Amino acid sequence: MNDRRESDNFEQKINMRRKLEQREHEFLSPYAAFSDSSLGRDIYEEPCDIRPIYQRDRDRILHSKSFRRLKHKTQVFLAPEGDHYRTRLTHTLEVSQNARTIARALRLNEDLTEAIALGHDLGHTPFGHAGERALNQVCPEGFEHHIQSIRVVELLENHGKGLNLTEEVRDGILNHQTKGCPATLEGKIVRLSDKIAYINHDIDDAIRGHIITEEEIPKEYTDVLGHSPTERLNTIIHDIIIHSEDTDDITMSSEVHQAMFEMRRYMFRSVYTNPVAKGEEQKAESMLTHLFEFYTRNLELLPEEYLYRMESKGETATRAVCDYIAGMTDRFAVAKFRELSIPRSWSIY
Known about the structure:
The chain has 349 residues and is mainly α.
C-alpha cells in the first residue's frame, strides 16, 4: 500500500511538470521557445518532476557561486562612495526585470528569458570593462566576457563540472553582446534589455556622481525617449512590445532605435571615457596585469582546481590564470594584489 501511494505521489509530481509544459502550449505565442521542445543539455539528465527545463536552468544560475560574486564586481564606477550605485549584480537584476516584462507581454518563455538574463554576465571580470581590457591584452588567447560566461557555465562552475545548461540558455548568454545574433526571441529580448538597462542606469549613476546632468543630455534624444530614467524605460519597453507583438522578431521603431543607440554613443563620449568617472581604471588594469604576470610565473600558487584542469584537461597556463583572475571580485583582487606585492610589515600604512 505504501509503495503504491509513493508511486501515485511521484506520478502526480511528474504530471505537475507536464501540466506546466502543456500550459505553455496553451498560452504562449507560437514563436516562443517551448520547454518540451528544447535542444537539451550536452549531458542527459532525467527531467525534474516539478520544474520545466528552463526554470531548472534559471535556478542553477541563481544558486551558482559566480552569480553571488557579481555583487562585488564593478558595473561602471570603481568603488563609488555611496550605497546606491549599480554593481554587476544589480545590473543583471535590472536586465532580468526588463527582459521578463517584455517576454511576458509578448507571451514568450519567461523562464528561458530570465535564465539567459541572470547568466549573461557571469564571466565578467573584476573592475568591469577595465578588467576585461586588461585580460584581453595580456592573455594570448584573448578575453571577452560573453565567451568567458560560457566557460563559467560549461567548465568552471560546480567544481569543474559546469552547470550543464540547455543549448538555448547558452546560446542566449553567448550572443547577448551588440554584435550577437541569438537563436531564440527570448535571447533577442535579453540582448536588447542589456542595452536598455545599462544605458538608463548608467545615466542615473552618472548624474548621481555629478559626471553629467539631465539637462546636458542632448534634447534630440530625450525628446524621443523621455526626460528621466523612468520615462525612458517606459518609452523603449512599450516600443519594443508594440512593434514585436505577433511577429517572429524582436524589433523597435526606427525613431526610438536610433535615439537609443545615439544615447549610447553619447554615454561613451561623456561617461564611459570621462576621466572623472574612469580616472582610476588605469590603476585597476595595472593591478590585474600584475596579478596575471605573477601567477604565470608562480603557477603552483593557483588553486588546485585550476592546476587540475592544466594537468588533466590540457588547459594552457595562461588560460588557467585568466580564468582565476576573471572570477575574482574587486575586493578579492585588491586583497591578492596587496598580499603579493606589499611586504606584510608595510601593509598597516
